Amino acid sequence: MFQVCDAASVGFDPARWKRVGELADELCSSGQVGAIGIFVSRGDRTTGTRLFGRQRLADDADGTIRDDAVFLIASITKPIVAMSALLLVEAGQVRLDDRVSRYLPEFGNNGKNGIRIRHLLTHTSGLPDMLTENQQLREAGAGLEEFVAGTCRVEPDFQPGRGVQYQSMGFAILGEVIARVSGQGCADWLNSQVIGPLGLESTRLGASDDWFDGERPMVDRIAEIRTPPEQEGVDWNWNQRYWRQLGAPWGGLLTTPRELAVIGRMMLEGGRGVISPASVAAATCNQLSAMADVPEADRRCKPWGLGWRLNWPATSANFGDLLGPATYGHWGATGTLMWIDPDRDTVCVILTTEPQEPHGRQIAQLSNAISASLV
Fold first, then answer.
1. pLDDT score at 72
2. Collapsed DSSP state (helix, strand, coil) of residue 73
3. Structure pTM?
4. How far apart are CA 228 and CA 103, in angstroms?
5. Cβ atoms within 10 A of the Cβ of 358, count?
6. What is the structure's pLDDT at 63?
7. Which of 301, 293, 305 is nearest to 342 (CA)?
8. Backbone angles phi, psi at 279, to 5 degrees
9. pLDDT in the model for residue 230
10. What's the CA gap between 201 and 212, in Å, rounded?
């Protein structure tokens, strides 16, 4: 899949590419960020995975990150689950304009009967990002079915297709649609249709029990995240077994920088036989442009594809300031970013363990330095 080369052979300005590593090292050695993993490819060429910082927050600052480190990528999960859902569209089992209630009859109450699959994929459903009882569900060790049930009970904040509101719970519902149509749990479907065919050995939507077994368990490879205050001292935070195993379709994917880049490369290669070129094209164009009731400023300035965030050049958050108009990708609350630039045949993965929402300042700094290094 990838050929490891020197910076110039990949297509980097060597001095500017060196600055990327210096900046990452500065962020980690100063304690601003616990760990950083970077993987950038141009075509099939790369300088390889670059890792900085600490595997555990209590480790010495000199650098203890494992060379096989796994990261929880949070919401970058969403577009990957979205692509697996499009396989059901390709097979003629689902249409984007089907009502969600066609597959989940219990969903169609409290003003939600008009919500369609398309609305889930474009954040235009009116569903909430998180349920009001989100923390209580996690404290109780709730399964995905309880998040789905809670979402089925809510009233949308606006009529579908008439606004844009980021909605993780829309992807909870999408995961349930996948399960009911495919006959497999969302994690199993993703594994059988995308992760397995791409040969991704360290990528899972939710860690299986065997990740916790043996003298050198797989979970030891997962880099520890600096948790926000509301997650401190609890047994349901990002670093705990509960969340690592939940397999949330909105944010539970575990992977490495290189394996995530394989998924990005799949997109640049028109689906690479895993997903069709037609699905890739539909997923990476501005779906809001045809939604007449979405506010004009959102359609023009904050476009969404199907699960993918297209480039918003007027904001620095996460993506930075120097990306081209064809770029798309996603960010994650745990401090992660992937962007894909077809014009420059580039996949960029930046995975950290420092939550940075809503501004994503340090990720944006790294993204800018990487963009500047491309020649």
1. 98
2. coil
3. 0.98
4. 36
5. 7
6. 77
7. 305
8. -65, -40
9. 87
10. 16
